[in-house]
Amino acid sequence: MHSRLGRPVRGRGAGAKADMTSRIHYTKPSITELEVEYATDAARNGWGERCYEYIDRFEQQFCKHLGVNYAIATSSCTGALHMGMAALGIGSDDEVILADTNWIASAAPITYLGAKPVFVDVLPDTWCIDPIKTEAAITPKTKAILAVHLYGNLCDMNALLALGKKHGIPVIEDAAEAIGSVWHGKRAGSIGAFGAFSFHGTKTMTTGEGGMFVTQDKVLYEKVLTLSNHGRAKGQVKQFWPDVIGFKYKISNIQAAIGCAQTERIDDLVAAKRRVFEYYANGLGGSSVTMNPELPGTQNGYWMPTIVVNEGVRFEREALLAEFKKHDVDGRVFFWPLSMLPMFDGKPENIVSYSLYHKAINLPSYHDLSEAEMDRVIAIVRNGMGISV
After folding, report:
1. How far are the Cα atoms of 4, 5, 141, 287 from residue 33, in angstroms, in the given order?
2. 267-384, superfamily in CATH?
3. Residue 256: phi, psi to the nearest 5?
4. Catalytic residue list contains 203
5. Cα dihedral sign for 36, 38, 43, 44?
6. pLDDT averaged per 10 residues in sequence order, the chain, 389 residues
7. At CB < 8 A and 24+ separation, what contacts does 55-64 make?
8. What are residue 135's phi and psi, to 5 degrees?
9. What is the CA radius of gyration of the chain?
10. How far is Cα 211 from Cα 75, in angstroms, rounded to an integer?
11. Which residue, of 60, 223, 227, 385, is most buried by count of CB atoms within 10 Å of its CB?
């Protein structure tokens, strides 16, 4: 399953026998000898003239995988979003529309620029932004639509791009959770004005911390490239001469070395995530829960297998999480609506977003989960809360 030097550093393979008393983490990275080899080389030799060697290689490999022309490796997805929005000219008193059901990392960069995040409701099947609600929220102040592909689920990019074209506003993709997801032949993150990815330790592929800005637009790429280097423009001959005030969101060479190894293994990493999801779906099939959808013409990378308890089924999220904890299994809550947080105004009219969070959880989903471990998780969902399945 692994590429050259792809032997796991530790842990079991998917078919290995599990210790029925061992803790099941909700997620952890897949690190093999290949990542260790590249990181060691970067630590020993990646200095001086070689200080950007793995960064350049990582960007090129990721471009090839995604099918885009330009990529800039960053210290986080948040940084990639921040710089990309800044390069689009989003600023004070502007508005950016995004789904209410999201992690704050999608909304925070909007506020960094003095702009306002406008939260709209999500679709009940994909849990991603509702295009109809999006269009209703567009005002003269709207400067972008932010499409966040939640848990690997895909936003309706055709509908959102049509809205963008109709109203003359860009559509941005937050594909932090969507490595491996494909929308009608195009990889998530490669479709909008720009895309942003996360390589946090919980993600399908990781650099520990890290991210990537990607685009097909050369002009936008060059703007972000300048911003990413403290405002020093490409081709500027004066040393230490910034042309504008920029940012410092650069990834390290050592992190990028790990990213190179992960990119070489990316097909296997996505396949492992899909294996985990499919086992859960088969084990919970025909039950009182709904899981991540894979709509016709798409592929879901299934970053985080999620159950949403169907209407009319008696369920208490905290009680199920307590059952998980009792059996030494990690569960993870579904994202709260951002408008419920104290720094934003409440929007209870976002009915779907406000109905989802308390009846959903994320299941453990690391790459080498054994079938015995997944059976433990399935048994808790089936029996722990007495849910009819």
Report:
1. 9, 5, 50, 40
2. Aspartate Aminotransferase, domain 1 (3.90.1150.10)
3. -65, -30
4. yes
5. positive
6. 47 45 91 98 97 98 98 98 98 98 98 98 98 98 98 98 98 98 98 98 97 98 96 91 95 98 98 98 88 97 96 89 94 96 98 96 96 96 64
7. 55/250, 55/251, 55/253, 55/256, 57/256, 57/260, 58/251, 58/256, 58/257, 58/259, 58/260, 58/263, 59/212, 61/260, 61/263, 61/264, 62/197, 62/212, 62/214, 62/259, 62/263, 63/214
8. -65, -35
9. 21
10. 6
11. 227
160-175 core/surface letters (b: 16 or more CB in 10 A; e: else): bbebbeeeebbbbbbb
- Tokens 């502007």 label which residue? 94
Q: Token digits for 206? A: 């990781």
**Identity (one letter) of the amino acid at 199?**
F
Helices of type H across 77-204? 77-87, 104-112, 131-137, 157-167
Please state which architecture CATH assigns to domain 34-264.
3-Layer(aba) Sandwich (3.40)
Catalytic residue among 133, 143, 203, 250: 203
Please report, as a single letter, which amino acid is at residue 231.
G
**Integer angstrom CA distances of residue 342 from 25, 240, 339, 347, 383:** 30, 41, 8, 12, 36
Q: Cα separation of 142 and 165, whole Å? A: 13
How crowded is residue 348: how many other Cβ atoms within 10 Å of its Cβ?
A: 10
Distance CA 335, CA 358 (A): 9
- Sequence-ordered list of residues with C-beta below 8 angstroms from that of 179, at least 6 positions apart, any chain: 188, 197, 203, 204, 205, 266, 269, 270, 301, 303
- Residue 349 in tokens: 């009219």
Closest CA to 190 of 216, 210, 171: 216
| Residue 74: C-alpha distances to residues 54, 67, 196, 339 (Å) | 13, 19, 10, 28
Pull the structure tokens for residue 269: 């990493």
- Distance, CA of 172 to CA of 80 (rounded, Å): 11
- Write down the domain spans for the chain: 34-264, 267-384
